[in-house]
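# step 3/5: fold
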Amino acid sequence: MKFKYMPMISVIVTVFNLENYIADCLKSIRKQIYTDFEVIIINDGSTDNSEKIINSFIDDERFKLFNTENRGVSEARNTALDLSSGEYIIFVDGDDMITEDCLLTCISTIENNDIIVFNYKKLNNKGVISKSKYNSNNLRAKSIDTLCIEAIELEPNPWGKFYKSNSFIGIKYPKGILYEDYAIFYRLFKGKKVKFIDDELYIYRI
């Protein structure tokens, strides 16, 4: 697909002691077919070799590392959102990966929607990938309010979704609580145009 202009995508990666996985994560982002992106990496006080591994990627000017004291994933995500400059936001956990067509598929299909929800695969320690989680037809059959209140078929995790950056105006992840994703889930989706697609674009490590 040809674009009249190439919208910037901010890829947010939070890291805490993920030396065994962070390289795979960042390699999957670097391989993207769509190339107009920045990677905001928040190293949340890692005490292992995560920072050293991340530094091997920052010769690519799209990869930007920010080292912070360990303050938890909510603060790390909020910091990354404040630092991001893209028109669109996607979260990738530091031990997960995305397929090489992830950004291209999202930017090509979002159209006038605010959020895309896409499918994911599960990867275990034997390298076996499970079947897809979502069926987009099932999700479309329910209202966004119902999906958010149930939080079963539509899970509250920030990954597996592609957002217009203005979706986060006035919304921050709460500090110091468990299940922080649930705390903003309804507010983030309420009143938004949401598109569901079946494409398996995220690889979730279990």
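# step 4/5: annotate
The longest helix spans residues 73-83.
# step 5/5: archive (pending)
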